[in-house]
Amino acid sequence: MRPGRIRSRGRLPHVEADNGIYFVTFRLGDSLPTSVLASLQLTYARDPDAARKRVRDVERVLENGHGACHLKLPAIAQVVAETLQKFDGERYRLFAWCVMPNHVHVVCQPVPSFELKVILHSWKSYTAQQANQILNRKGEDFWQREYFDHLIRDRGQLDRAIRYTRENPVKAGLKDWKWVYVAPDVK
């Protein structure tokens, strides 16, 4: 698979390809404390080739459950899960997803007429509105504006992304976590 375009919005570049499969992580607005972000930025400013390590370190911080962790609330986790599944097979193909207490992982492939950024905007916009209603809040940011995505380049990367998504709750110490899905045809 040959990457097509690099799109930049905010701080993260997004590599896009026609018929691409992506591993995506989006997180709650308060999931990474400012002090932790500043420390990570300072550490990796000295080593620009450490992008992969930076992603792993951010994932470890997320797994520690910083912030209010609103996605632990079953009503909000259910809204997110249902929203992810709503257009599976129409706008995208879902390979796997996991709703964690303060972030979400998704492995998906947009159908040709839909862009990943539009799909993410739809998921985040709708779920933020619904979650803020459940939390009895108005006008408060729910999700972090930016998201992380990785264009999957081969079957090995796809298998690792699905396994990571499926096993993330166990690694984070969440027993009997029900907000995980792997498509039956990719297990």
Write a structural description.
- The chain has 5 helices and 7 strands.
- Strand 1 and strand 2 form a beta hairpin.
- The model has no long low-confidence stretch (mean pLDDT 85).
- It starts with a strand and ends in a 5-residue tail after the last strand.
- With 187 residues, the protein is an alpha+beta fold.
- The strands form 2 sheets. The protein has a 5-stranded antiparallel β-sheet, with helices on both faces.
- Helix 1 runs antiparallel to helix 2 and helix 3 packs antiparallel against helix 4.
- Helices cover 40% and strands 22% of the residues.
Derived structural class: alpha+beta
For the terminal residues, how far apart are their CA atoms? 22 Å
Largest sheet: number of strands, sense, barrel closure: 5 strands, antiparallel
What's the overall geometry? Answer: globular
The number of helical elements comes to: 5
Tell me the number of strands. 7
Low-pLDDT segments: none
DSSP strand (E) fraction? 15-25%
Helix content: 25-40%
